[in-house]
Structures are given as C-alpha cells and as structure tokens.
Automatic annotation (TrEMBL):
Region (Disordered): 69-114
SUPFAM superfamilies in the record: Six-hairpin glycosidases (SSF48208)
Organism this protein belongs to: Mytilus coruscus (Sea mussel)
Name of this chain's protein: Endoglucanase
UniProt-listed PROSITE patterns: GH9_3
Protein's GO biological process: cellulose catabolic process
InterPro entries xref list: 6-hairpin_glycosidase_sf, 6hp_glycosidase-like_sf, Glyco_hydro_9, Glyco_hydro_9_Asp/Glu_AS
Domain Glycoside hydrolase family: 163-576
Length: 597
C-alpha cells in the first residue's frame, strides 16, 4: 500500500477492515503501536523526517501481508489532517503513477482529491502550494525525496542538501544489487531471487552484489565497496543512527561479508574471485531473475595467486569485524577469523589476480597488490592490535601521491589508516598532498562547474572518493574546514550544484536520471524499456557515472560511460554523505561553498 503525504504530520493511523494482518512493513516511518487485533497501526515519523521542509514531499510506502486471497483494505488518517482516506493493497500490479492537479494549500481553497481508489486528504503547509500529488497503490520501494529550500537544520549546522537522505537512498541501491536468495525484508519489490545456481566446483557461491548495470560478481570492486562502507560506519555511526538507517546499514554490509566467507575456503586454500563471464553477461539484456546463460566461476589459489583481490577482501572482513563487534560478537569473530586466514594466504602467495584470472582483465585489470595488502594489514591491526600487522602495513606503504582512490588504487587509504594508527607526521602529509591534488588549483583538473575530473569512467566516483577520504581525514584530525569545504563542493555538485541542476543520485530531489544503464531497472517481466524510455523501475540511490570534462551529460541508457551505476561508484559517495551528515548533526559543518553554476 502506498501513499504520498507531506511533511506537516506527526502521527498516521492505519485501520484495516478486511482481515488481521500477518505483517505490516514500513521503511520511512516507525510503527509506534499495534492493536491486539492487529488491525490498527499507529505510525510516527522517524528522526530524519524532521529535516524535510515545507514545500518538499515525503513518500511513504507500506506493504501489508495477510492470509487468504483477499487483499488488505483499510483507511488512513493523518493526525489533524482531515477525514480518513481509503486504500486497498494490490500486490504484483504495475505501478500507476497517475498525477492529480496541484493541491492549493491556501486555507480558503482546500479540497480533497482522489485517484485510483485512494483518497488523499490535502495538507496545509504554510499556506503554500505543494507539487502535484501522485497516488499509486502498489508495493513499490520505500523512498522519500525532498526539495530543500531553505537548507535543513538537523539540531546542528545547516546543510544545503540533505546528506542523511542521500546516504539512506544509497543503501536502497545496494539492496537492488543483491544476488541470490533475498531476505524477507527486501524493500525492492521489482527484485526477486536470482542466480540461485551460482557455484564453483559445486561449492555454493550464491549471494553478494551484482557489480553494476550487469550481473557479474567481481570480488575486487565488491570488496572495495564493502570496505569503504564499513569504514564509514565505523567513523560515522551516529549519522546512520540519526537518520534511522543503522539497522539497514548493518543489513547492507552483511550481504557482501556473508558472500566473501562463502568464497574463501581455507581448507582448500582457494578463494573464488568472480562469478559470471563478462562477455556472455553483457550480451544479455534482461532481468537477473531471467538469466539463462552459464555463470562460470573463477578462483585464485597458490598456483594462481591474487593478493590484490584477497587483500581487498581482508580489509572488508576486518572492518566488518570491527563494526559488528558491539552488534553481533559471534558474527564479528567469524569475520575476523576469515580475515586473518585469508591474509596469510594472500601474503604467502603474492601475485596479481587478473594475471591468474584473465577473464577479469577486460573489466577490472589490476596493476599491483601492495596497496591492497597495506590496507588489509592496517585493518587487521585495528581489529586485533597485533603488532605484526602494523609492521606489515608499513612495509607495504607507498608515499607517492596517488592518481585517486578506487578499486585499483588504495594508497590514500593505506596512508590515512597508517595516520590513524600511528599519528606519524609523514602519513598526515601524504593525505594533505592527496587532497591538495584534487582541490582547486591542484594537479587534477576540474570541470567548469567545479567537479574534480580524474577520468571519464565514473567521473562522479573519483570526486566522491576524494570527498570520502577528506571527511575521514577530518574525523582523524586532518584538514578541518578546508577539507570539509572541498568534500561539500564535490557532493553538492553531485546532488545539484551543477549546470543542469540535476542530482546524479537517482531518487534524490525531483530532477535525476530516469534512464540509467541498468538491466534490472530497465526491464519488467517479459519486456524492457527502449533506450529513449524512462526505466519502469526506479533505481533509488544509484549514482550514475557522471558528466564529461565540460559538465556535459545526457540521460541516455546506451551511454554506459556516463550513465551506468556500480557498487564502487556509490561506496565513497555514501561514506562522504555520512561524514558530512555527522559533522552537521554535531554542529561542526561550515557553511556550504557557493555553487559555480
């Protein structure tokens, strides 16, 4: 059941008339109380909803589950907002985004509008006119999208954009990338179980994340993403708590971490690093649920080493052990045990994984492994305090200013972790030099409107990753407002401070890409949207590749350079948003830098 309502509410009452519910699922509101008959539910807004200002809108989704063949039906009442409206759940039906005319919220002209069997009471918001009300009744993903004018206040500093919202939407993107058996609380209704036969020599390899707009599982970038996300959770846990997304974030991380523990088989000294053939996969344009091609799996072992892929995974497992220590100590211990044994395997068998697995070269060709091993050793030292890991991390350290932080280049992460762990001045200087190279006047060029432009492939990724390094550095005592201003300039560009006034994160605001290069979003059972048509499924939270060097961008599904999404595109972006939100709620965020366009 779905409804669109507006910010000026405190309590929403749902009363179901047809049957007792087995379950009522919500994502952006809290279930405050339930009647003994399980027919009445009182819902209240979560903490982060208070950041949504008048003039914006908040989309709230509900999934009601009951026994029998009759769909649940009932009424909703928004506290203080007029008579109840009615609705009926229609499972497995296409979403109908019918739009009614704008509702005038002047007190003298309020009237009730209805469409598609739902009646939505108008809401008074400071006597202003709100956008058209879209009323659709279906099981669609939870989301809320906000126009922020003026900046929101979160009990601390003002933000030009709602970083908490952007962070939360990004988690939904990772939910949409899940492979294998989906959990019962899956919030993406257009996704189902897929690739249930994934295996390597008969060993179960189901699970994990699909890489991008395709359905290959590449462990090198997947582990990079999991590590960056885990690092952000470690540093900015309060941001996730304040946004009401902490449990969602733990669930998000479990998906790749569980998968990595499947892929690593210590008794066989084998680590599976890829499932799916890139060529065959890219030749298929359809849903993951409809894949019919073979999905070969590829491994590394002592005779075919890959310290880079293994080291990346160690970093993810080790930071997972750290962040789950207080949440689930048993799970944390399993992660740490896997991290330690995989590290010994990687150290004893040095080598580049894409030399051992040539099927990866056309997609994620690695240039080395010492940077990944440095991060791995540093994260293990953080998790264990065993001096041997710190000694190893220092031995793998490279003082050079890196081209960037991404799946193949981890020097900035290594340098920043060593600063965290030792407070030695040379590591601090490394990070200052790296951010200086990306900031205005540095060696990395900028687009006319202010995006640091390292490479055409995932231009947003490089800028967001520099922002993520910057906010972690500030949390570690480096850079202060200077680094925060740089991070804000990049994230603000991505969220709308650009020449197109476009959010490159799907679902954030009202102007965002509608045709990303993503098979699942583009296809419904039996058909796929044409290249010029909007995707039938909204890929909430996905960060598209980004603009060209002159801020040029078109929302073109065929453009996999600028308009594809990927797990590693979102990771640094989400952690940067978490960091900025952390500093905002702690009243430590300086004023936003002015937009260049």
């Amino acid at each position: 059941m779905n409804t669109n309502i507006f910010r000026n509410y405190e309590t929403l009452l749902f009363v179901f008339h047809t049957s007792m519910l087995l379950q009522l699922m919500t994502w952006v509101v809290e279930i405050e109380s339930t009647s003994s008959s399980k027919t009445e539910f009182v819902l209240t807004n979560k903490n982060y909803d208070k950041d949504v200002l008048s003039g914006g809108d908040l989309k709230i989704d509900f999934v009601a589950r009951a026994s029998g063949s009759t769909a649940p039906a009932g009424t909703e009442t928004i506290e203080g907002q007029g008579p109840p409206s009615t609705g009926k759940q229609q499972p497995n039906q296409p979403t109908d985004n019918s739009t009614v005319p704008p509702v005038s919220t002047n007190k003298s002209t309020v009237s009730t509008v209805s469409t598609n069997n739902a009646t939505v009471p108008p809401v008074l918001i400071n006597n202003s006119t709100v956008p058209p009300v879209s009323t659709n009744i279906s099981t669609v993903p939870s989301s809320h999208f906000v126009k922020l004018t003026p900046p929101p206040e979160v009990g601390g500093a003002k933000m030009k954009y709602d970083y908490g919202n952007a962070m939360g939407l990004s988690i939904l993107f990772y939910d949409a990338q899940r492979s294998g058996k989906l959990p019962s609380n899956n919030p993406i209704p257009w996704r189902g179980d897929s690739a249930m036969g994934d295996n390597g020599d008969g060993h179960d390899l189901t699970g994990g994340w699909y890489d991008a707009g395709d359905h290959v599982k590449f462990n090198l970038p997947m582990a990079t993403s999991a590590h960056v996300l885990g690092w952000g959770l470690e540093k900015f846990k309060d941001a996730y708590e304040h946004a009401g997304k902490l449990d969602d974030m733990y669930d998000c991380l479990r998906t790749p971490l569980d998968y990595f523990m499947k892929c690593w088989i210590p008794s066989q000294q084998t680590y599976w690093v890829q499932v799916g053939d890139g060529g065959a996969d890219h030749a298929f344009w359809g849903r993951a649920e409809d894949m019919h091609m073979g999905r070969p799996a590829y491994k590394i072992h002592p005779g075919a080493p890959g310290s880079d892929a293994a080291g990346n995974t160690v970093s993810a497992l080790a930071i997972g052990a750290v962040v789950f220590q207080d949440k689930d100590a048993g799970y944390s211990a399993k992660l740490l045990e896997a991290a330690k044994s995989l590290y010994e395997f990687a150290k004893a068998n040095p080598g580049i994984y894409s030399n051992s697995v040539p099927q990866a070269k056309a997609f994620y060709k690695s240039s080395g492994y010492t940077d990944e091993m440095c991060e791995a050793a540093a994260e293990l030292y953080k998790a264990t305090k065993d001096q041997k890991y710190l000694t190893d991390a220092k031995s793998f350290y490279d003082p050079a200013v890196a081209l960037g932080y991404f799946w193949d280049k981890k020097q900035p992460g290594c340098q920043l972790l060593l600063w965290e762990l030792t407070q030695e001045a040379k590591y601090k200087a490394n990070i200052e030099d790296f951010i200086a190279s990306y900031a205005p006047g540095g060696s990395v060029p900028m687009t006319p409107c202010g995006l640091t432009y390292r490479n055409k492939w995932g231009s947003n990724r490089y800028a967001a990753n520099a922002a993520f390094i910057a906010v972690i550095a500030v949390a570690d005592g480096i850079g202060g407002d200077k680094f925060l201003n740089y991070a804000m300039s990049q994230i603000n560009y991505i969220l709308g401070d650009n020449n197109l006034h476009l959010s490159y994160e799907i679902g954030f605001g009202n102007n965002y890409p509608k045709r990303p290069h993503h098979r699942g979003a583009a296809c419904k059972p039996g058909w796929c949207a044409a290249s010029w048509q909007d995707s039938p499924n909204i890929l909430y939270g996905g960060l598209v590749g980004g603009p060209g060097q002159n801020d040029d961008y078109q929302d073109n599904r065929d453009d996999y350079v600028k308009n594809e999404v990927a797990c590693d595109y979102n990771a640094g972006f989400q952690t940067a948003c978490a960091g900025l939100y952390h500093f905002a709620i702690n009243n430590q965020l300086p004023p936003s830098p002015p937009a260049k366009c």
